[in-house]
Amino acid sequence: MSVNSTQNITWFKACEKEEVPDNGGVCVKYGEEQIALFHFTRRNEWFASQNLCPHRQQMAISRGMIGSQGGEPKVACPFHKKTFSLIDGRCLTGDDTCGLKIYPVKLEGSQVYIGIHNDEALVEALA
Ligand code: FES
Q1: In ligand 1, which atom is closest to the CA atom of 82?
Q2: Any idea where the Rieske domain is (predicted)?
Q3: Could you say which of 10, 91, 92, 112 would form a disulfide bridge with 121 (CB–CB 3.0 to 4.6 Å)?
């Protein structure tokens, strides 16, 4: 795993761009954490969120359908179709009690990096 730190974020190399399907997602592991990584080709944007759906604790978000709602990128869990904003993780289907953790994504050449806040990276390193 390739890692570098900037400011309060540790960036780890998640994968090569070509490993993520157009308008689809993959699951990437960071320690014990599963992260859903999406290439929203139609918007030419990348997003990452926790892979665990908070509704029924299913590791499923990376297999969700992505789309837009009022211009905001979103993902729908494949199980019960709850949808979540890929900008801030809030549930868009009327459930204020659950949301997704969102991670920053950056590209360097053909490589995709996901950012982990340093307090979380330290916790993972100590686990
Ligand atoms: S488990 Fe994801 S919406 Fe129910």
Answers
A1: 3
A2: 11-114
A3: 10
